[in-house]
Amino acid sequence: MFDKNYDKHYDKHHDKQHDNKHYDKHKDSGSKSEDSSNKNKPYYPSSKDSYSYESIKKDVNSVLPISKNKPQKPKSIKKAVVKVPVVLGEATVQIDMSAKIHFPEPVLEIKAVKKNLKLTQCRLLLPTNKLFIKGFVRKNIQYASPRSSYRHGVISSIRSLTVDVPFETVTEIDFINLPQFSKNPDRHEFTYFAKNDLPKGFSDKEHLLSADLSQFDQISGEVFNELPFCELLSSHFIEYDEALDREMGKVYGKDDEWVDAPFEEGTFKKIEEKMVLELTFKVLQKQQVEIDGHDHKHKGKDWEY
Fold it and tell me: What distance lies between CA 54 and its chain's CA centroid?
């Protein structure tokens, strides 16, 4: 026979467990519904957010509000003389170039060529209009160099070679605004009158009257001109590269040994380059310019982007 007290204790404990399971199930369903509702809500950053790596990784997007501003009229003077760069001339010069380039290893084909213009000198020789230009074209050549091959194919690696192709030329500038240039003033010498005693053998009443040779007097000066300078606007390249030592059916590997390859393939190590460079630039000089303070109202359309 079972103890009645034990049955009561068992029933009470069983009811409690049942209630706890019901509560936990309700709690889980509530938390799941709460999580699903939170997922649908947009995220708004606040000062309480922690900027840890995990939070940044989780919330990567944010929307910035548009802030209004109030335009302010700057304070200015009505009339002034300012020193600003003045455009003396703008021109496009064509430079013809030719060069031979040697590769350090056999080349199967050229994949790409990237060119950049570099100027080392752009000098206007005043008081003439002759402009001396000197620089180089930086060329980065990407090419395929054979590593191994067989009768029906060639296995290559992509390499690159960077070279500088120099150039130098002189051109004439048609001035839009004349440059400001002044020569140094002329040198002028002058002397002072001097009266000195004569040595023995001359009358005591006589004196030596002449210029003072004990000093040198001169009027001279210097004028410091503003040196003209250049600004690059654009460059345009027209290029033709031709291999000089390529033979069809002869492919050389990385150690310059002949390898078996398809009959139409061939390698080379020298190319001849012919290039036409069109360079557009401005020549400027700092000059003093007088400006007025008239209020020119804008009558055109508003600026759009």
Answer: 37
